[in-house]
């Protein structure tokens, strides 16, 4: 997984950089084939903007944007939304490969 954390007009501390990197590592728990994660932190009119751009093999890219006055809050809200989007995508993929009714009927007949 390629990871890029970039900031524009904002100085990122090592603590924030580590916090974002840890959150990206936690994305692996969804067992999706995430190929690239780009994080862009920018200064906006109404505060700070955080954007997660995640590219997943065999799926559409997931883009999460969040703006808040506080940098820590904006990062945490974007991480929460990214986790929610990845969880939904994981559940969608998992349900797509669920057992069919024919397989259930065959198991019932054998019993």
From TrEMBL:
SUPFAM superfamilies according to UniProt: Ribosome binding protein Y (YfiA homologue)
Transmembrane segments: none
Protein's name in the database: Ribosomal subunit interface protein
Lineage of origin: Bacteria, Pseudomonadati, Campylobacterota, Epsilonproteobacteria, Campylobacterales
